[in-house]
Amino acid sequence: MKLDRALLLHLGLLAALLAFHFAAPAYHHTNIARIMVLAIYAMGYNIAFGYTGLLSLGHALFFGAGLYAAGLLAYHAEGTAGTGLIAGLAAGGLVAFALGLFALRTAGVAFMIVTLMFAQAGYLTVLYFGSYTRGDEGIVIPRAGRMLGSLDLSDDNTRYLVAFALFAAALLVNLWLARSPRGRIMVAMRENEERSRMLGYNPFTVKLAALTISGLYSGLSGAAYALMFGYAGASLASVQYSILPLLYVLLGGAGTVIGPFLGALLMFYLIDYASSVTDAHQFVTGAALVLLILFAPKGILGTLRERGLRWLP
Amino acid sequence: MLRLEGIEAGYGAVQVLRGLSLSVAAGEVLCLMGRNGAGKSTTLKTIIGQLRASAGTIELDGARLETLPAHEVPRQGVGYVPQGRRLFGDLTVAENIEIGLMTRKRDARTRDRVLELFPRLRERMGQVSRTLSGGEQQMLAIARALCLEPKVLLLDEPTEGLQPSMIALIRDTVVALKKTGVATILVEQRVDAALSVADRIAFMTGGSVAETVPAAGLRADAPQFAAYVGV
């Protein structure tokens, strides 16, 4: 990867996050670790939606697949964090691939509905097999299952650094993908599927690949979330967790690499602050989204890119 | 090189092409002319696979095209420049060209050959394509199709809405391609533009070719233009 201003920007963000580890108060330290994990999920969502134009309402299924792959393995099979992360990554990718084989035969609103229904089916499956998943109550992952080699993910510092390492890897892979020929074809597909087909690209194959990569990111994020915060519950596989990454991406900027992180950061703190002053915090986030749509419909970084920062990937 | 035989195609229940047959040889320019609704653009869309032929055959160097999935047709060496350019507006000139190159895994040498035809694009490589002028967009649309190194190039009204200097440039490009052995099927409404590049002109009416005549010696006031094009 050539060292240019786009790469420098991303490396700068990573350097700032690493520096934050040494300077941040405990409360924000934990928050940023959580945000980095959720940003991996949002990056995955962005690959499907922001780059390829697949507006999914079912990504909680992929996040949940990773969450429960890691959680169940640790809870029932004495799995470790290492096997949990690998299992989560694989589960997210496989579920996304399988869903894509069916759902990508539809488009637009039908695709949204089909993905939503699959995700709801996944959520209900978690509740139905409550004797294994502990349903609404969820699984509290034992400490042994949160060991990554000699690293204990229940320790705040370790958790932050492992979250940072996963986030850094996810960000740089995302940057590479966005600037690769494959990334351009995904964008071409988003812009016009028929036009891409006329140039010799199979829309189904391109979209299936994008959805599978998106599932890998989501599954990894789900597994990391379960292992780092020690909990896998049905609420984390509910429809709300399909909407969250969409909001993060819309706020930060669809089709930008840093946008999902920025969106997750701002939305997390907006909800955090709003819920500390009012029970009706969803009104505040709703109002923020209305303002966003009115004044920056392409999200923060999408708008900046449109207004001059053309080099922003 | 490319041969269509007894093609029937249309949009849903509306049949447009009715037993269409035509052929074009390597290094030949065949111009399709006719009134609106005669089936000119539909012919190109059927060749590229955007529309499915319900009957008939399409052969490129003996290989059947109409049985292939639409995305496979360009990979066989058919380049298509649709009416209205249809670029990827948010991508730069360089990125649009790169997408054309990747289809058949062509490299920088192909890109450089294509850009020799359109030097102005070389100056605009970093520019977002929707901000180009109409003529530049048309150049890019043709350049992108040429990145496939096509055996057959399908051009749907490439001079529509362009200024005379751009029309001349596109005519020169078609002539240059002809010398390299590329077969071209050109849909054109402008009689002068058609006569300046075509080897043969196929006059279409009612979804089939009514008459095919050599362009050489044909004058703009020939009765076919009045009968089939209405000029």
Automatic annotation (TrEMBL), chain A:
Main localisation: membrane
Residue stretches spanning the membrane: 33-53, 60-77, 83-102, 109-129, 160-178, 199-217, 223-239, 246-271, 283-304
InterPro entries per UniProt: ABC_transp_permease, LivM-like
Compartment(s) where it occurs, according to its Swiss-Prot or TrEMBL record: Cell membrane
Keywords assigned by UniProt, alphabetized: Cell membrane, Membrane, Transmembrane, Transmembrane helix
Membrane topology summary: Multi-pass membrane protein
Record's protein name: Branched-chain amino acid ABC transporter permease
High-level lineage: Bacteria, Pseudomonadati, Pseudomonadota, Alphaproteobacteria, Rhodobacterales
Automatic annotation (TrEMBL), chain B:
Domain of life: Bacteria
SMART domains xref list: AAA (SM00382)
Gene3D superfamilies: P-loop containing nucleotide triphosphate hydrolases
InterPro entries xrefs: AAA+_ATPase, ABC_transporter-like_ATP-bd, ABC_transporter-like_CS, BCAA_Transport_ATP-bd_LivF, P-loop_NTPase
CDD domains: ABC_TM1139_LivF_branched
Pfam families on file: ABC_tran
A GO term for molecular function: ATP binding
Domain ABC transporter: 2-231
Key words, A-Z: Amino-acid transport, ATP-binding, Nucleotide-binding, Transport
Annotated PANTHER family: HIGH-AFFINITY BRANCHED-CHAIN AMINO ACID TRANSPORT ATP-BINDING PROTEIN LIVF
Family indicated by similarity: Belongs to the ABC transporter superfamily.
Name of protein: ABC transporter ATP-binding protein
Annotated source species: Defluviimonas salinarum
